[in-house]
Amino acid sequence: MVPRLPPELIDAIVGHVSTSDKDTLKACAVTGSVFRATCQRRLWRELELTNNPHNDGYSYSYLQAATRFAAYPHLASYVAELELWLCVGDDMDTAESVFHALPSVLSILSKLAAIDIRLYYTQMDTVWPNLPAGFTTAVAELLARPPASLRKLRMSDFLVIPREVMHSALMACPTVTLFRVSADDFSTRTSVPESWHKSPIERLKTSIYQLCRPFLSLTVLPYTKSLRALVLCNSGGNVMYELFTIPALCASLAESLEYLAIEFPCMAHSDNVSYSPVIVLPPLPKLRYLQLSFHYIDYTAQGPAVSVAPALSPHNAGLVPLFLANSLPSVPALATLVLPVDVRVRGLRMKYEPPAAFAVFDSLISAFLAREATRNRACYIPKLRFFPPLQDEAKARAGLHMDAFARAMREAHPLSVPLGLAVVERDREGWISEMVDF
To answer: Name one GO biological process term (predicted).
Structure first.
């Protein structure tokens, strides 16, 4: 009897090859039958389908995928992550015949754990009713009957999504991301059936700008009764009134919300930063994790090159610390406070002084860390962005810049650091919760 390698050892050997290195995986798959199944599982774990494929071996047309699965049916069971693209515009093939194979392909992908549905367009008329019917019908059927294994769904750049399709998306799986999307106006129609409100969603990620549009907000709210994690991103909108959406939305989640992450918009000095919305979280008795991301522009020893971001600007009394000061009493169970900060640096001087703009945080964070009811922890996660970008010879010194800035941040928090405030310079593991990192 010819000895065979244990499957665990084969997986360990092939695991040294990156899933993005498809050429090497294909070569390994034909090296010997012992490696074939393991290599095929890695090759087909992620699948990109599009009506505009590139000849790079990474994306397939709908017909190419249908042909491959017809010849090798077992490959469909290996697909765990699907990226489904629709490309519309000049030089894009959107004839209905292009989409004939799509429903059959989607129907045999029974082991999907994640679906990412995206629209690429070079024309502005991209509302859902005007997209190719072969694509929208196939997507609607997929969402109406998703695989039982589905855990994550993302939809991006689709406008005026019909209520029935939004319902299916919001009922499909526990984690949903809606980015740069809008919902159909159903205000003149009959109300949503009560049975539609029993959604399995536990985690929702969307943009503050999109959510402040009433049609999307009204569509999403009924499905958030069991939401444990909410992530609100800034999708490029710089209008501060968007932030008024946050308290009302959070109030509807008071009985279930445990994790909240908010990315505050960054505004240039030319924007209306004198307008300062006062935003306060409603009582959230179960909230345990709060992440507030913001921007701090051009802090170096040379001084600000343009202006500091309004999150720390005297023009609006410091939006983020004001939000934090007003909201901490509303979250008595809060145990983890994470403050990712995007720092735009001009020039390469290594002299960083303690940023005075952060001093206002020191008393707030120290009071939070000193709470006796819970064992609390807090951290900053700075990310330095260099303008102009670092050249190759300077990239090696980027770590030294981070070390210098981290030391300056610690010096700016004399009350909080002794109580445990951390400045996470590189390894954020253990700080950014996987509940909001999706």
So the answer is: proteolysis
